[in-house]
Amino acid sequence: MDAIYQTEALIAEDIDAYLDVHQHKTMLRFITCGSVDDGKSTLIGRLLYDSKMIFEDQLAALESDSKKVGTQGQEIDFALLVDGLAAEREQGITIDVAYRFFNTEKRKFIVADCPGHEQYTRNMVTGASTADLAVILIDARKGVLVQTRRHSYLCQLIGIRNIVLAVNKMDLVDYDQARFDEIVAEYRGFATSIGIESFTAMPISGFKGDNITTRSENTPWYTGPTLIDHLETVEVLSSLDAGKPFRMPVQWVNRPNLDFRGFSGLIATGSVKPGDPVRVLPSGKTSTVSRIVTLDGDLDEAVAGQSVTVCLADEIDCSRGDVLATADHPPQVADQFEATIVWMDDEAMLVGRSYWLKLGTQTVSVTVQQPKYTVNVNTLEQLAAKTLELNAIGVAEIATDKPLVFEAYADSRTLGGFVLVDKLTNRTVAAGMLHFSLRRAQNVHWQATDVTREVHAALKNQKAKVLWFTGLSGSGKSTIANEVEKQLNVMNRHTFLLDGDNVRHGLNRDLGFTEADRIENIRRVGEVAKLMADAGLIVLTAFISPFRAERELVRKMLPEGEFVEIFVDTPLEVAEARDVKGLYKKARAGDLKNFTGIDSPYEPPEGPDICVNTVAMTPAEAAEHIIRQLLPLK
Amino acid sequence: MTRTLTHLERLEAEAIHIMREVAAQADKPVMLYSVGKDSAVMLHLARKAFFPSPPPFPLLHVDTTWKFKDMYGLRDRMARESGMELLVYQNPEATERGINPFDHGPLHTDMWKTEGLKQALDLHGFDAAFGGARRDEEKSRAKERIFSFRTASHGWDPKNQRPELWNLYNARKNKGESIRVFPISNWTELDIWQYIQLNDVPIVPLYFAAVRPTFEWEGQLFMADDIDRLTKVLGQKPAITERSIRFRTLGCFPLTGAVESTASTLSEVIQETLLTTTSERQGRVIDKDAGGAGMEKKKQEGYF
Q1: Which residues on chain B are in Cβ contact (under 8 Å) with A8?
Q2: Tens of pLDDT, residues A82-95
Q3: How far does the CA of residue B142 sit from the closest CA of chain A (Å)?
Q4: How far is A216 from chain B, CA to nearest CA, in Å?
Q5: pTM reported for the whole predicted model
Q6: Which residues pair with A63 in a beta bridge?
Q7: Total Cβ atoms within 10 A of residue A53
Q8: Is the CB of B170 inside 8 Å of chain A's CB atoms?
Q9: Which pLDDT band, with edges at 50, 70 and 90, does B33 fall under?
Q10: Is residue A534 scored above 80 in pLDDT?
Q11: Which residues, other chains included, contact A339 with Cβ-Cβ below 8 Å and sequence gap of 6+?
């Protein structure tokens, strides 16, 4: 602890010299992880304590808390410093990541204490995503445990290159070198199998302070660095980013007046100078950098990790979501990918459901295919799976509705890491890492045709529409849709009615009634309806289509105003009383699973374009009401 | 070989990135401005983030009417210099009932600050509000995300926070929900001071020691900023002594204890801060309520 006392002396004697040192420090972000009782929080408490980041009043509170709820008898329980939520202190566990800060003479450190329990994996991944290094703790008495493996796997997955294996509680195994070597050998075998090429192992005691800031006399056989020495000298991720090609996702267009137009963003990788040729992705247009503007004056150069505003020499289109990149080595653009996905929501992933994907400053719609496999994070076995549930990690193909500027996650966290957001609940439901784009996306291009959809519709003297009837089984969708089509035909309109039951006899005969199959059913019907609308037809569809998200998906496939959502509003009791096909009876008896309204949900439209109440109206009246709302049809 | 950024450069870049993400994604953002040193740094970062444009959101000061005179002075000057609109909100119910820190204790914070903040956000319909809280200040803050969601009634659910990976911030919210955004989450008190020094960020002179009129009350040292008003509320004129004092943290003048000090330059203030043996928020009475979970409870109720 000599260094700390020297620091204190320097502060007292020459504050300006101390500040000069502090000003030039670099920053290292790291996480601590490991099994539940391996002593993570204790280690962090020790680091804070040894680097004098704990004040007298906090220490006094800590001492009294230790006696009240501590787990270390009469001694100080450092873990109480870190577990900050009332529920955590009561239960003695870590639920969410806690961020703590301390300094040494060389660096500033941000340490994220990550929860060990599997149910809080999403919180651990949150902590790990910004870390340069991971300290994986092992209890010397227990050796490599299931959670040690899982956390190591997650660290590797999230791309943490620097791993410290801290064999903790060495005081409880009498600082036995043989035990230490045994654990290191066991871990090495496992680490190699998951692709961790190297790690730094050290024997420590967070509780007693061995090999934390000073070399311990209790482990004369250990010749490596102390934990602090290692943390002070290891290379940080951001310095690697600076050597890569220039990329800056545009966050915001800065336009205070007609004479100034700048593109603001955080440089993800590489560096940039005025005069550099740059390319705007995905458009591919090129220009040169004219200025790098900051409040403190224009810069001669800006590097990865800096937030700047870049001006270009030419007036070219560029807005939020675009990526500025070095002109001769731009990132790729694609719309289909393979990715690893960590599912983080209580509601399992739905194959085919459309989610928002956020990557850099881009936000696009995305659908996920059935996973190729999931990984059992405890045994690392690859398993077949239909979906991804909370905390599951799997590999799947994804398809976006617009081209995405990307790089493999291994090359760029910024352009390869993404989150998925549920479109209805707005929750962040998954994190993902792009591997590569699929060739079929690169090679399949849209073929432009001369007879356009407008021409098709004009020839039929009408405007294409998709009249989307939604409602419970037995609500009267098919009957009313049929009535509407008849009346439209009398009016000389060209129509086609897609009926739920009929489509399931052919196109969708391979689909069942699980949530995933229902989504795929609607997606296919949406695509068929869109092709027919392209041909200029007025398409009527009669499907239960129970989920709002899929109806929205179809609406988004079509030009504005072409999708007309018609809610056939019939209360469940009425539909069940009608029970034209006898299906409700079967469902109530348990002979029919996943039946909408009984054991599968129906999400009514929040703002349907047209609504008909079949209790108050006959089918003919409902049809007439709908037609009146649709006029004029040209 | 390109250089490695210093920790302050990285913290600055992170805060600017966060502010731009909010400006690009929120419908109606606002910056809470309390005139303290953390607010001063946050405002400076906002000016950097959007230069040469002025920051594209207003400043909101949730006023308790019990701030130091110097604070009101700096507030008005900074709003002018930054070219930002300044909104000041005082809870009308607290005004009417004459809520003050002496007679009403914790109710003072609750009515003026917690309730005042909720009312101000609802009144203007702000959906994202920047706050200058730091994770090193207090244990429950250390667990809070940078984008922290609040229910329609402004409550915080610490056990169910959104995952927040890399620097991707999902700002989508449900109807009625709002976001509190903390761009300087990862700064420490030392970082704040050093940034103020390196960037000449204007701060309230009360942070520097000077001879000022003081009085003692319930064992703590306070500054007599408005003697007439104090006399009225206390029912008697407090015994005033001139002392060389300064403030480590600035809140309402009767709630913020002063420390005796001769540190009159930034270097000296930093030196004193580093050598001190009590944590910063101890000067504030708020954290001591409700045992160890004071701040967590306040945040669940809608405090910043």
Answers
A1: 275
A2: 665 666 666 666 66
A3: 5
A4: 28
A5: 0.79
A6: none
A7: 18
A8: yes
A9: very high
A10: yes
A11: A395, A396, A397, A398, A418, A432, A433, A434, A435
Q: Which residue stretches of B165-263 are H helix?
A: 189-199, 227-234
Share of chain B above pLDDT 90, in %: 47
* Chain A CB within 8 Å of residue B162 CB: yes
Question: Residue A343 and residue A348: Cα distance in Å, rounded?
Answer: 8
- Measured between CB atoms, does B159 come within 8 Å of chain A? yes
Q: Which of A205, A271, A473, A545 does the annotation list as catalytic?
A: A545
Q: Of A8, A18, A125, which has the smallest distance from its Cβ to B163's Cβ?
A: A125
User: Is A193 one of the catalytic residues?
Assistant: no
- When CB atoms are compared, the residue of B50, B145, B296 closest to A85 is B296
Q: What is the DSSP string of A163-194?
A: EEEEEE-GGGGTT-HHHHHHHHHHHHHHHHHT
pLDDT tens readout for residues B203-262: 999 999 999 999 887 778 888 887 888 787 777 888 889 999 999 888 777 778 888 999
Element of type H or E holding A115: none
- pLDDT of residue A579 exceeding 60: yes
For residue A494, CA distances in Å to A464, A489, A537, B121 come to 9, 7, 6, 53
Distance of residue A354 Cα from the nearest chain B Cα, in angstroms: 16
B177-196 residues touching A, CB cutoff 8 A: 185-186, 188, 190-191, 194
pLDDT average, residue stretch B188-201: 92
Handedness of CA A429, A435, A440, A444 (dihedral sign): positive
N-term to C-term CA, chain A: 84
Tokens of A29: 């972000």
- pLDDT tens digit string along A42-66? 888 888 877 766 556 666 777 777 7
Convert the pLDDT of each residue in A173-227 to its tens digit: 999 999 999 999 999 999 998 889 899 999 999 888 899 988 999 999 999 999 9
Are B174 and A243 in contact (CB < 8 Å)? Answer: no
Q: Apex CA A514: angle with CA A510 and CA A517, to 5°?
A: 45
Please give the sequence-ordered ranges of beta strands (E in DSSP) within B160-226, or none if there are none: 178-181, 210-217, 220-223
Residue A287: which H helix or E strand, with range? strand A285-293
Q: Does B277 touch chain A (CB under 8 A)?
A: yes
Q: Does ipTM top 0.85?
A: yes
